[in-house]
# Entry
Amino acid sequence: MRKIIIKGRHKLEGEVQISGSKNASLAILAATILLPGKSIIRNVPNLLDVQTIIRVLRALGIRAEYSRSQLNTVEVWNYNVKHVAPYELVTKMRASFFVIGPILARKGLAKIPLPGGCAIGSRPVNLHIKGLEALGATVTIEHGFVIVKADKLKGGNVYLDFPSVGATESIMMAATLASGETVIENPAREPEIIDLANFLNSAGAKISGAGTEEIKITGVSELFPVEYRVIPDRIEAGTFMIAAAITHGNLRVKGIIPEHVESTLRKLSEMGVIVKVLENEVGISAKNGLRAADVKTMPYPGFPTDMQAQFTALLSLAKGTSVVTETVFENRFMHVQELKRMGADIKLEGQSAIINGVSELSSAPVKVSDLRAGAALVLAGLVAQGETIIEDRDHHLERGYENLNKKLNNLGADVRIV
Ligand code: UD1
# Structure
């Protein structure tokens, strides 16, 4: 069992280099299914989730591995692709389901297990299916597997009832090899969608409008292998910004695209955190007496749901009453019970958390329910009085943060993993 032990009350100071984006890497590695030949993907963080998608690719008959000579580089040799994704990997990580689009486009048939429920809500896949049907695929569900078939995908119009990141990615990947033009209306506009489109375009796809309210994809007959560099991880960046704010420290968060973290920066400024934006980095410093703020999660460019738990930890120490409203996922407040064990004053009402700021948190044994809930507990532990013991039975933090304890300790924290 994994335990993270944090001795709190160390101010974080110095500079931290942000790793490549987990979510962009997962989508881009899934998209390599579309590219016969050898592709090289750089700036891929070495995380459990990335290892899972690599295992999915291998199970599909694709050779994929981290380069022995170059850090954070994944090499993919793709010649033959099988059409069945393994149950144990897809149920382990929901993003494995996103291979449905590229496998269908490449093989005309894909058999992918339903990802099932998870800690942060039911997370259905109806929008993925609706999109693939609009491209002419027939879809059946048999024995827990989604089976999609199409001899030849044809471009079509898809309106997404919610701008789902995964569904936008599945449809975009499938449509690259369809005949004719596909239009996705109300797509997700997250930076990871733009990164996936840039990756596919560099491989010969014709995608325009990624990052806007309408994406157009003109199908091409084949794609070619490429070398590509993944964008920085905006959620890791945001988490370190909060680490600086919560410990009243002073950090330079480097190697990022500041535009991608704008909503987080605005909320931090509103609370009284001093924010300095440079070309590829952001300076964050904070003193005692941060003010309460209200936060509502929204699809990009709104405030990211993946930063909600970390912000809840920060707001639990801000002066006054804050309201955090989660609109993207149901049931994404698992961290609240644990933060309360550390002395936070938070009340849940439906999809909102009402937080009355307290002057300090104290250490307690706590449990991690999901990746960002784990990040919130680490942040709380950094500032709590005493030694916080975080039980992370399922290694959630390693799914999303590369070298988290080393990076924090370099900044003056005292974090041990046992
Ligand atoms: C991705 C991110 C995740 C982030 C989330 C929202 C990856 C690997 N993960 O997850 O970190 O928290 O975006 O920014 O990129 N929905 C449906 N039907 C569907 C698909 C989704 O109803 O077919 C709903 C979900 O239940 C949820 C909402 O849409 O309530 C958003 O989900 P979605 O954007 O699809 O999240 P993921 O792509 O799974």
Residues 99 and 172 are 11 Å apart (CA to CA). The chain is about 30% helix and 25% strand. The longest strand covers residues 37-42.
